[in-house]
Automatic annotation (TrEMBL):
GO terms for biological process: tRNA queuosine(34) biosynthetic process. The keyword Transferase applies. NCBIfam families: PRK00147.1, queA. Coiled coil: none annotated. GO terms for molecular function: S-adenosylmethionine:tRNA ribosyltransferase-isomerase activity. It comes from marine metagenome. The keyword rRNA-binding does not apply. This is S-adenosylmethionine:tRNA ribosyltransferase-isomerase. The lineage of its organism: unclassified sequences, metagenomes, ecological metagenomes. Pfam families: Queuosine_synth. SUPFAM superfamilies: QueA-like (SSF111337).
Amino acid sequence: MVVHRDTGEIEHKKFSNLPNYFRKNDLFLMNNTKVFPARLFANKDRTDAQVEVFLLRELENDLWEVMVRPARKVRIGNKLMFTKNVYCDVIDNTISGGRVVRFEYDGEDIYGIIDRIGQSPLPPYIKRDAEPSDKVRYQTVYAERRGAVAAPTAGLHFTDGLIKRLKNKEIKIEYTTLHIGLGTFRPVQVEDLNRHQMDSEYFEVSPVTALAINEVKKKKRKVVAVGTSVVRSIETVVVSGFQVTPKRGWTDKFIYPPYDFKMVDALITNFHQPKSTLLMMVSAFATRKLIMKAYREAK
């Protein structure tokens, strides 16, 4: 579906038609984050009760922030056994209801262990158990930098062939990084949107990408964000007017109506769940009225 926010026109096209809507020197920005198998299962060392351990982020070497389920059964001091030689000690609670754990293991690199024993963290709308093939299938073709617990799903539609067609048309492609966290699935539960707190997510906009954006804006060509995570990265690093600066760090930027987009001229995105921050962003981009019209037509 193609939604023209300037005219309100809605077209129904195949995704393979995408290059037809853009011209030489337009710039596509893609999130090159890579999903890692963050869902692990362990047994408590004394009771043998099974516990799900969902890795959120590494705080320092072998020290991780995690979510556990059932949370009421996991307390500070517990030891969670993944295999005979791999376990973690629960050393603290977090204000968000999670835990801080320290991994203990012999020899093998921790990421090698996670790759071996972890499962892909499929989104809640996929109603089946994870399969080994998901570690490859639930990735974009340009995924490179490990750190996400959810794929930038707008990018899943791109194939190597489609990217080649864009490049053959002299459309530029650059990459940002934003490691998508569990908060992407958390609905807004407050009436006053100013009170909604986004989870912080690590992002990077490299000097090469920042320069490409600034040059494209100077030439009045289009900046095309492939996914809402790219929008958050780019809009976070706007410094003045139509300029961005390279940056790495954490962003909790929440974009909702009304919002004046500084850098993004076109957005490639999926359909989103009600009350999600993602739906609010696209409503800010194309107006809620037009987005709801598009959703009704798609239904």
